[in-house]
Amino acid sequence: MSDYYDAFEVSPVPAPGPDAVPPEPFRGIYGMPAFATVPTTDLAASVDFWTRGLGFFELFTIPGTLVHLRRWAFQDVLLVTAESVPEQPPAMSLGFACVLSQVEPLVEACRALRPDSVDGPRDTPWNSREVTVITPENARIVLTAAKPFDPAGEEVRNLAAIGITVPGTGEEGDGGTPA
To answer: What is the pLDDT along the chain (179 residues), one digit of tens a residue?
Structure first.
């Protein structure tokens, strides 16, 4: 028996695949389970980059003080005015899910706004394609798109070894634990 269960019905993230379609922007109001607060010295420039480059939209604004941005449900960012921001990107990153078809357009949009802001895209050992973007406020944002599983791939075998079944691959987890 595995302690893992399929909870994709509560997530806006679509199943990975070349035909995955991103969800529509979510304009509903909810109690945010998590969000990022990003200080900025130029609220207008920050909003412009986050909306035109990263694909967020303005949910609401307190003029001159705060802009609440969102992409999908549960991807919330509050841009807040500050007297100063760090000169270097912080050691931590904030990640947002996307789908494969969004990766290249996001890279192009961010590079058009800030040519040196993008690192990647690159494929990861955890079966995703990722892009790292440094925003005007020096926040490090990682956009991650899940790649479809190769039914014969190492990732499927590794998951099966710990009891997780990847639908459509024919690999059934044995409920065991990794060695």
So the answer is: 457 666 777 788 888 878 889 989 899 888 777 788 899 999 999 999 999 999 999 999 998 999 999 999 999 999 999 888 888 878 778 999 999 999 999 999 999 999 999 999 999 867 889 999 999 999 999 999 988 887 787 777 777 776 667 766 665 544 333 33
Q: Which two tokens stand for residue 38?
A: 């990003």
- pTM, two decimals, is 0.72
Task: Give the span between the Cα atoms of 174 and 83, in whole angstroms.
Answer: 55
H or E stretch covering 59: strand 57-62
The closest of 2, 58, 69 to 36, measured between CA atoms, is 69
